[in-house]
Design a protein that fits this description.
By secondary structure, this protein is α/β, with parallel strands linked by helices. It has a single domain (7-211), classed as Rossmann fold (3-Layer(aba) Sandwich). It has 8 helices and 9 strands. The protein has helices spanning 16-26, 55-58, 77-80, 83-103, 124-138, 161-170, 182-193, 205-211; strands spanning 7-11, 33-35, 48-49, 68-71, 108-112, 143-148, 152-153, 180-181, 199-204. The strands form 2 sheets. It has a 7-stranded parallel beta sheet with strand order 3-2-1-4-5-6-9, with helices on both faces. The chain has a two-stranded parallel ribbon with strand order 7-8. Strand 7, helix 6 (161-170) and strand 8 form a beta-alpha-beta unit.
Length: 213
């Protein structure tokens, strides 16, 4: 069964996937409002509400009813500066955003996690993503969609040397391990948002590629 959300809350609109998702949302004729807080101003649009500032400070100020929330927040340990700073973004801030979205009436949360997310993983990055997934499930959302993409492919505003070196190889790996274009992920997230359901759905990278074709 499909539904058509009209009021959207989006975190991470200036990121690689978030910018593609925002463009898609603003071009959907059924959507009347996209509330997208960001650290830097976004291009103006008649259906865009864009509070500017640090997300943690903006969350209590966000107003209005929303149907669906997308969380495209994501960093790296190098970009964040430390393991603690990384966890503050990819775990704590994600959970705070989700709580505020629920308070604003969102019934469906779609969040970008990562391939290999596991609360018991020995790799710190994967463990934080797994902890985040478990904590979101504990929030008892009516509908929670967890996307686990492989390496995201696309042109970023900041240079990530590891991703640049890995990208050519990730395009040829099999199944869920193959890299996924950010535009494809954005299309998949929107399609998943249109599907009405209950409970938790985890979508691995190979299914995301199929949904985003």
């Amino acid at each position: 069964m499909y539904l058509t959300p009209q009021h959207i809350l989006l975190a991470g609109a200036t990121g690689l996937t978030g910018e593609h998702l925002l463009d898609r949302l603003l071009n959907e004729p059924t959507i009347s409002r996209v509330l997208a807080p960001s650290r830097r101003p976004l291009a103006e649009h008649p259906h865009l509400d864009n509070p500017v500032g640090e997300l943690a400070a903006l969350l209590p100020q966000l107003q209005g009813q929303v149907d669906t929330a997308f969380c495209c927040l994501g960093s790296t340990i190098k970009q964040a500066g430390s393991q603690d700073a990384f966890r503050a973004i990819d775990h704590d801030l994600v959970l705070a955003f989700a709580r505020r979205a629920r308070e604003m009436g969102a019934r469906h949360l779609l969040v970008i996690s990562a391939l290999g997310a596991d609360a018991n993983a020995s790799v710190f990055y994967n463990r934080v993503k797994g902890d985040m997934e478990q904590a979101l499930q504990a929030q008892d959302w009516p509908q929670l969609t967890i996307a686990r993409p492989s390496l995201l492919l696309g042109s970023r505003s900041e240079f990530r040397i590891g991703e640049q070196l890995a990208a050519p190889f990730m395009r040829w790996l099999p199944g869920k391990y193959r890299g996924i274009e950010a535009t494809t992920l954005a299309r998949a997230l929107w399609r998943l948002a249109l599907e009405e359901g209950d409970g938790v759905r985890v979508v691995e990278s190979d299914e995301l590629r199929r949904l985003g074709r």
